[in-house]
Amino acid sequence: MQQVLSVPSQLGVLLKAARKEAGISQVKLAERLGISQSRMSHMELNPGSVSLEQLLALFGALGLEIMVGSKNPAKRSTAQAPDAGHPSARHVANEPPAPEW
């Protein structure tokens, strides 16, 4: 699944669709994340209120990842990802700590 997001409401639609595609109820996903079902519902309905840390945990639980790209392919950056020995690369490779909800 690839989706371009421009506004927060699109994120809520994406999260709900990904959860349903995975066959996971709000209750089960909330249990995996250690939050209440009502908080899970709130995150889908009001994704603008979700922190980046919470969003990354939610994406991880759904088997999704965030990719960032230029809107204009002609102006794409030539920046490269850090090598595997770089501390930030290790953080990406390892399971992130559980967020505080």
Automatic annotation (TrEMBL):
<feature type="domain" description="HTH cro/C1-type">
    <location>
        <begin position="15"/>
        <end position="66"/>
    </location>
</feature>
<dbReference type="Pfam" id="PF01381">
    <property type="entry name" value="HTH_3"/>
</dbReference>
<feature type="region of interest" description="Disordered">
    <location>
        <begin position="73"/>
        <end position="101"/>
    </location>
</feature>
<dbReference type="InterPro" id="IPR001387">
    <property type="entry name" value="Cro/C1-type_HTH"/>
</dbReference>
<dbReference type="GO" id="GO:0003677">
    <property type="term" value="F:DNA binding"/>
</dbReference>
<dbReference type="InterPro" id="IPR010982">
    <property type="entry name" value="Lambda_DNA-bd_dom_sf"/>
</dbReference>
<protein>
    <submittedName>
        <fullName>HTH-type transcriptional regulator/antitoxin HipB</fullName>
    </submittedName>
</protein>
